[in-house]
TrEMBL record:
Protein name: Response regulator
Keyword entries, A-Z: ATP-binding, Nucleotide-binding, Phosphoprotein, Transcription, Transcription regulation
Annotated ranges, domain Response regulatory: 14-128
InterPro entries: AAA+_ATPase (IPR003593), AAA_lid_NorR (IPR058031), CheY-like_superfamily (IPR011006), P-loop_NTPase (IPR027417), Sig_transdc_resp-reg_receiver (IPR001789), Sigma_54_int (IPR002078), Sigma_54_int_dom_ATP-bd_1 (IPR025662), Sigma_54_int_dom_CS (IPR025944)
Annotated source species: Thauera aromatica K172
A GO BP annotation: phosphorelay signal transduction system
CDD domains listed in its UniProt record: AAA (cd00009)
Domain Sigma-54 factor interaction: start-end pairs: 145-374
Modified residues (4-aspartylphosphate): 63
Compositional bias segments (type: Basic and acidic residues): 420-429
Disordered: annotated span: 420-448
Lineage: Bacteria, Pseudomonadati, Pseudomonadota, Betaproteobacteria, Rhodocyclales
Length: 448
C-alpha cells in the first residue's frame, strides 16, 4: 500500500482481516480500501480476539489456518460473543467438508484462495447491506417452534445457526411437519429479517405460467401483458424466497431456476437482458429428491445447488411430549380467530391425542382440534369430541433413508460429495454412475 493510499484510508474501520500471511493481509486491506472500507488486520487468533473486544466491526474475514488455532475456532468465538457479526472463512485448502463445517458453525460464507476481486466485492456487499441480526431470538420468534422436546430443541438450535449465513438450506420431512414454519423461523432470525419472506408452492403453479410467475414479464410480451409485472424473485429482493415442494417443478423450469440461483439474476419474459436479484433460497420437499434424480425427474445439478445444508424436521410421533403445548397453542389461535376464550382439553381428550400416531403430523393435529371445537358444546373438549380417522395408516411414512440422509446427522454428509469428486460429465448432465451421491468440490464461494 503506497503513501497516498494510506493517507486516504477511511476514518471508520468496518472490517477485521485475520490471516497469518502479511502479503495476503495487505492485499485484502488494499482491496477493501478501494471499496471505501477501512480495516484492521490480525496475524493470529489471539490478536483477532483482542481486536474484537476492543472495537466493533461490520464484517470479519478469516483464514482457515492460523498459527495458534484455526478459522473455525474464531467463528465459534464470534458466534458466542459477537453473534451479530458476519464472518467469512477464506482458505487455500477448500473442501466441501470444511465449507459445511464453517457454515454449520454459523459462518456467513466460505471462499477459497486465490479470492477473485468480484467474489470479494459480492461477499462484502451482501454482508454489509444486510442488517445485523439480534444476538438472541426474540420470544415471538422462539414461539414459532412450539414445544420443549429434545428433538425440537435440536431443530431450533440448528435453525438458529443456519439463520446467520446465506447458504441454501433444504428442509426435508413428512407432510404436515411444519417445514414452512421452520423456513420462516430461519428468515426472521437472520440478517434478512427486514426483507420480505416470499413462500411459493411449486406444485400449485401451472407449468405454462411458471416462468412469468418466477421471473416476471414486460408489457406486451404476450397477450394480456398490459403492464410490467415483477416475479417472485423480484418480490423477494433483499429477503428470502422459500420454494416449497420443489420436487414438483418440471424439468424445463428446473433449468431456468438453476441459472437464476447460480447467476443471481433473472430475465423477465419479454426482456432483453438479465437483472440482478439478491435473495436467499430456502427450499423444502416431502419427496425423496435422490430418487427423483435417479429417475431423471429432478436435475442433479439443481439438487446439489439447493442442498448445501439439509435440515430435518422431525415428525410429531418423535416429539409426542410437545403435543400438550402444541394443542394449547392451536386452541389459543382458534379462540383468537373466533373472538372468545380458548377451550380446554380434558385429561381424557389429551390422552387420546397422546396415543394417536398422527401420520398427518402437526397439520392433522390442527384439523382434529378445529373439528373438535366445532363439535364441542361447552368450554371443555372431551374425548368424544375428537374424531380420529380409524383408517389412518403408517404405510405411507417416509424414512430418513428414503431422502438419502443420515438420520444421525441433520447436516449433509460431506463424504457424499467426496465420493463423486472424480465423476465425469459436464454441468447439467448426470455423471455416469454418480446417482445422487454428490457433486465435485469446486472453488469459489458457496453461492445461494
Amino acid at each position: 500500500m503506497n503513501t497516498v493510499e494510506r493517507r486516504n484510508r477511511p476514518r471508520t474501520v468496518d472490517v477485521l482481516v485475520v490471516d497469518d500471511e502479511e502479503d495476503i493481509r495487505e492485499l485484502l486491506e488494499l482491496s477493501l480500501l478501494r471499496m471505501g472500507l477501512g480495516c484492521d488486520t490480525a496475524g493470529s487468533l489471539q490478536e483477532a480476539r483482542a481486536l474484537l473486544e476492543a472495537r466493533r466491526y461490520r464484517l470479519c474475514l478469516t483464514d482457515m489456518r492460523l498459527p495458534d488455532g484455526d478459522g473455525l475456532s474464531l467463528v465459534e468465538y464470534i458466534q458466542a460473543r459477537h453473534a451479530g457479526l458476519p464472518v467469512a472463512v477464506i482458505s487455500a485448502f477448500g473442501s466441501i467438508e470444511a465449507a459445511i463445517r464453517a457454515l454449520k458453525l454459523g459462518a456467513f460464507d466460505f471462499v477459497t484462495k486465490p479470492v477473485e476481486l468480484k467474489a470479494l466485492r459480492e461477499l462484502v456487499h451482501h454482508a454489509l447491506s444486510l442488517r445485523p441480526e439480534p444476538a438472541a431470538a426474540p420470544a415471538g420468534d422462539a414461539r414459532m417452534l412450539v414445544g420443549d422436546s429434545p428433538a425440537l430443541a435440536q431443530l431450533r438450535g440448528q435453525a438458529e445457526k443456519l439463520a446467520r449465513n446465506q447458504a441454501p438450506v433444504f428442509i426435508y420431512g413428512e407432510s404436515g411437519t411444519g417445514k414452512e414454519v421452520v423456513a420462516r423461523f430461519i428468515h426472521r432470525l437472520g440478517p434478512r429479517a427486514g426483507g420480505p419472506f416470499v413462500p411459493v408452492n411449486c406444485g400449485a403453479i401451472s407449468p405454462e405460467l411458471m416462468e412469468s410467475e418466477f421471473f416476471g414479464y414486460r408489457k406486451g410480451s404476450f397477450t394480456g401483458a398490459a403492464t410490467d409485472k415483477e416475479g417472485l424473485f423480484q418480490a423477494a429482493r433483499s429477503g428470502t424466497l422459500f420454494l416449497d415442494e420443489i420436487g414438483e417443478l418440471p424439468l424445463a423450469m428446473q433449468v431456468k431456476l438453476l441459472r437464476a440461483i447460480q447467476e443471481r439474476a433473472v430475465r423477465p419474459v419479454g426482456a432483453h437482458a438479465e437483472e440482478p436479484v439478491d435473495v436467499r433460497i430456502l427450499s423444502a420437499s416431502h419427496q425423496d429428491l435422490g430418487r427423483l434424480v435417479a429417475e431423471g425427474r429432478f436435475r442433479q445439478d439443481l439438487f446439489f445447488r439447493i442442498n448445501v445444508i439439509a435440515l430435518r424436521v422431525p415428525p410429531l410421533r418423535e416429539r409426542r411430549e410437545d403435543i400438550p403445548a402444541l394443542a394449547a397453542h392451536i386452541l389459543a389461535r382458534l379462540a383468537e380467530r373466533e373472538g372468545r376464550a380458548p377451550r380446554q382439553l380434558s385429561a381424557a381428550a389429551l390422552q387420546v391425542l397422546l396415543e394417536h400416531p398422527f401420520p398427518g403430523n402437526v397439520r392433522e393435529l390442527e384439523n382434529l382440534l378445529e373439528r373438535a371445537c366445532a363439535l364441542c358444546e361447552g368450554e371443555r373438549i372431551d374425548a368424544t369430541d375428537i374424531e380420529l380417522h380409524p383408517g389412518a395408516s403408517m404405510s405411507g411414512w417416509l424414512t430418513d433413508s428414503a431422502f438419502g440422509f443420515n438420520p444421525a446427522a441433520t447436516w449433509v454428509d460431506p463424504a457424499r460429495f467426496e465420493r463423486a469428486a472424480g465423476a465425469e460429465g459436464r454441468e447439467g448432465e448426470y455423471p455416469p454412475g454418480a446417482g445422487a451421491r454428490g457433486p465435485r468440490p469446486r472453488a469459489g464461494a458457496l453461492e445461494p
